[in-house]
Amino acid sequence: MTDETPSERFDNVISNIGLDDQSEIQDNKSNNSGENETAPSKKEVNTETEPVEIHELTGFQRDLLYCIAGLSEPHGTVIKENLTEYMSEEVNHGRLYPNLDKLVKKGLVKKSAKNDRTNMYILTGRAKKVLKSRRRWENNQLGI
Questions:
Q1: Do residues 18 and 25 lie in contact, with contact meaning Cβ atoms separated by under 8 Å?
Q2: From residue 137, how far is each of 6, 22, 48, 122, 142 by CA, in Å?
Q3: Which of 24, 70, 90, 93 has its CA 20 to 30 Å from the CA of residue 30?
Q4: Do residues 66 and 17 touch, judged by C-beta distance below 8 A?
Q5: DSSP string covering 61-118
Q6: pLDDT of residue 66
Q7: Is residue 30 in some structural domain?
Q8: Quick check: 124 and 108 in contact, CB under 8 A?
């Protein structure tokens, strides 16, 4: 690993995924901001398209998003090692993979096979948008 402080690493992650205030994230959907849609009831909500706010995630799930954003080859073992170092305690498989699967179901992470034994986890545009929103809120709270 590097000699960066957690704060420096966070700033580098944000910069690398384009979450600083000068960046713009393109949404894959057409811009229909003028339309007024009725939100579906909880029974009708499709987890692939359900809006997700970062405050609805657990702290561990947020850490997973930031970790994935900061890795060049984000697969399970590397994510686990990175989080274990950050948290200074072992992250077990029974905690890691169910939470990664939840992020996939929420449409925040895309899971793809690297080979027969290894899956890669990549942030979606939706995840980048959620992280950018969180960054703006944090900066506002800190007066930055």
A1: yes
A2: 19, 15, 25, 23, 9
A3: 70
A4: no
A5: HHHHHHHHHH-SS-BHHHHHHHHHHHHTSPPPHHHHHHHHHHHHHTTSEEEEESSSS-
A6: 94
A7: no
A8: yes
What b/e sequence results for 97-115 when a residue is b if at least 16 CB atoms lie within 10 Å of its CB, and e otherwise? Answer: eebbebbbebbbbeeeeee
Domain extent at residue 73: 6-17+48-135
Q: What is the pLDDT of residue 28?
A: 33
Residue 58 lies in a domain: yes
Phi/psi region, residue 35 (left: phi>0; alpha: psi -120 to 50; beta: rest), is beta
pLDDT computed for residue 63 by the predictor: 95
The answer to whether residue 99 is domain-embedded is yes
Angle, alpha carbons 88-112-75 (nearest 5°) = 20
The single-letter code of the amino acid at 38 is T
pLDDT digits over 43-83, tens only? 443 445 556 788 889 999 999 999 999 999 899 999 999 99
Q: What total of structural domains would you count in the chain? A: 1
Mapped onto helix, strand or coil, the DSSP state of residue 34 is: coil
Rounded to two decimals, the pTM is 0.67
